[in-house]
Design goal:
Bound molecules: 2-acetamido-2-deoxy-beta-D-glucopyranose
Keywords: Membrane, Transmembrane, Transmembrane helix
Number of strands: 25
Family: Belongs to the NXPE family.
Strand content: 15-25%
Number of helices: 13
Shape: globular
Strand order of the largest sheet: 19-20-21-18-23-24-25
Helix content: 25-40%
GO biological process, one term: nervous system development
Structural class: alpha+beta
Oligomer: single chain
Protein name: NXPE C-terminal domain-containing protein
Largest sheet: 7 strands, mixed
InterPro entries: Ig-like_fold, Ig_E-set, NXPE4_C, NXPH/NXPE
């Protein structure tokens, strides 16, 4: 084997030298590109400006695609009345009992129908289900299983004693999901950004994005291409009228410009999005199970999130993953984070954790770094407890107010600059700003981050605590939707599955909570999220 490889290698080198002597470097590059089949991507319409094969294997990409595969309608929609109509759907309890005890599981059957009441015959509707009790401020999440024939099955665990009711929502019809998918893959430019170029008193603003295909098709407009040296991440701006590319100073969100047809709009309309479906209104009464088992395993990296991952009771989340703790007082939190350097990177949903910790622990003092209120970076310290807490936005793309682009660091670059160790906690979340791009863009970003995580863990002998906050429920439109977030989240979990990292599942926590879905969950949810996080920072 080895000698064969060596021979091939030598032949290749000779070939290369010959080629270099014969052609210009441009020809050499295009020649290599043509002989290697490395340009796999889900659709040919999207034109991401990189080759995914440089980041992950074809095998992994194929398995990720299989993971997020979503059934398509069997034929093209000829009228909006053929779309799944939440008011015509129905859920029923399968063989209900008179009495239940804690630990039992309730099975729910969902039947999808179109606006004429005709049962659907294919899958793909995006439902969310939970069991809850308003009086006890209790709830838990149930995964909706697609039977691919117009019916869906949900298993709901009965986890607290007392009354409980089932609730099933249609978030998007299967037809709406197709719109979201097509928009995601075909129009990466539906959210665009502004680049501010400045020399002296001259400022010029242009359109920027992670993908240049939208402006380059059929035009000869010049672009400024920015390549991050640490990660290879790319960013593009139209060339400013007079200023040079290297005079780029600020970045901001530009605007929304999705190209959505009237039919597509009606499929995504409010009246058919996030609607409770009719069904069994009975209250099941759950009796106390005396032999209630409590979790005994420690909260350590590498645990896989079960369904359900836990439940609310009196608005307090009990995890079924591991032995969590309660951090009611500032002192308890302070003792937990003592002697830690906590670096948080991500979007505004993780900024909520930073803000929560600041209000919870008065001894944590925030420095005024005179940075953007939206994208930071922020830093807080407690010199007595020797705590340093940072939050910063993840790198571009980022929808934010005008901010120096140099303040927006890629997660992988930040990690590369850390030695790590037992006093280091790294937390990140990344999804909400990627819902408008083809899946390849997200997978590429994650693969770069994963490489940095592996290196960090390796050089610190797994002593560094790496925590990944999952996506949460929120938006339901073409720019950001629970279906889009859910897809990204599945990819993220799969790509970090076998690593020595903690995944904090906030999807279930936000999907089943009594408050309406909100991209920025209310304080009561954030408190539970942070308590779960802290349980991993100082496991008992
Ligand atoms: C290139 O890869 C794609 C995606 O796996 C595959 O379908 C295609 O057959 C390959 N083409 C060649 C020439 O190997
Ligand atoms: C259900 O629970 C009630 C109240 O505890 C009890 O009286 C009744 O016998 C139970 N029924 C069955 C079928 O177990
Ligand atoms: C109580 O819960 C345990 C664990 O879920 C189960 O094995 C047991 O059968 C339950 N007991 C009763 C009386 O339902
Ligand atoms: C749909 O599939 C489920 C699971 O395989 C099955 O139980 C059910 O009877 C099927 N329903 C119809 C209408 O085909
Ligand atoms: C909008 O979409 C339609 C249909 O897909 C297409 O024909 C049209 O060219 C698009 N317009 C723009 C500005 O992209
Ligand atoms: C770090 O964790 C990974 C995954 O759990 C494991 O395979 C590896 O052996 C660990 N390395 C050390 C040095 O403990």
């Amino acid at each position: 084997m080895r000698t064969t490889h060596q021979i091939i290698f030598i032949i290749l080198i000779i070939l290369c030298i010959t080629l270099i002597m014969k052609y210009t470097s441009f020809q050499l590059l295009s020649g290599l590109g043509a002989t290697q089949n490395t340009t796999f991507r889900p659709t040919d319409e999207s034109s991401t400006s990189f080759t995914l094969a440089d980041f992950i294997s074809l095998e992994e990409w194929t398995s990720l695609l299989a993971l997020v595969e979503w059934p398509s309608p069997t034929h093209k929609l000829s009228s909006p009345v053929e779309a799944t109509d939440p008011t015509k759907c129905l859920f029923t309890l399968v063989s209900p009992d008179v009495n239940y005890t804690v630990g039992n599981v309730l099975t729910v059957q969902v039947v999808a129908r179109d606006a004429t009441g005709k049962p659907k015959t294919h899958g793909g509707d995006f439902f969310q289900a939970k069991i809850y009790s308003t009086e006890q401020r209790a709830s838990t999440y149930g995964e909706v299983i697609d039977n691919y024939n117009g019916t869906y099955t949900v298993q709901l665990a009965l986890l607290w004693p007392g009354p409980a009711k089932v609730l099933v929502r249609l978030i998007h019809s299967s037809e709406a999901v197709q719109v979201l998918r097509r928009q995601r893959e075909q129009y990466p430019d539906k959210v665009f950004f502004t680049g501010y170029f400045k020399v002296g008193n001259v400022e010029e603003t242009v359109v920027c994005n992670a993908d240049r295909s939208a402006w380059l098709a059929g035009s000869s407009k010049s672009v400024c291409k920015f390549t991050d040296l640490g990660t290879g991440e790319l960013w593009f701006c139209q060339k400013p009228p007079s200023l040079p590319c290297d005079s780029w100073v600020h970045h901001s969100f530009g605007g929304y410009r999705a190209n959505v047809s009237t039919t597509e709009n009606s499929l995504l309309s409010k009246s058919s999005t996030d609607v409770k479906i009719p069904g069994s209104d009975v209250t099941v009464n759950v009796l106390q199970n005396i032999s209630k088992t409590s979790k005994t395993n420690k909260c350590l990296p590498g645990l896989e999130t079960p369904v359900p991952a836990g439940f609310y009771f009196q608005d307090k989340w009990t995890s079924l993953l591991c032995k969590t703790q309660s951090f009611t007082s500032a002192d308890q939190v302070s003792a937990c984070i003592k002697d830690k350097q906590i670096l948080m990177m991500g979007d505004s949903t993780l900024r909520q954790w930073f803000e929560y910790l600041l209000t919870k622990v008065p001894s944590l003092k925030k420095l005024n770094l005179h940075t953007s209120e939206q994208s930071g970076p922020f830093e807080a310290v407690d010199t007595t407890a020797n705590v340093r807490l940072e939050w910063r936005a993840h790198g571009l793309p980022l929808r934010t107010s005008k901010t120096p682009w140099a303040d927006l660091h890629y997660i992988a670059n930040e990690m590369k600059d850390l030695a790590g160790g037992e006093h280091t906690v790294v937390v990140f979340t990344i999804w909400a700003h990627f819902t408008t791009y083809p899946l390849t863009v997200y997978v590429r970003r994650l693969s770069i981050i994963r490489k940095a995580v592996i290196a960090l863990l390796q050089r610190s002998s797994n002593q560094t605590l790496v925590v990944i906050k999952s996506a949460n429920t929120g938006y339901k439109d073409v720019y950001g939707s629970d279906w889009l977030s859910w897809q990204l989240d599945r990819v993220l979990r799969a790509m970090f599955k076998d690593l020595h990292v903690v995944i904090i599942d906030v999807w279930q926590m936000t999907s089943c909570h009594s408050s309406p879905d909100n991209i920025h969950p209310p304080a009561v949810v954030i408190e539970n999220e942070v308590e779960l996080f802290l349980s991993f920072v100082c496991p008992k």
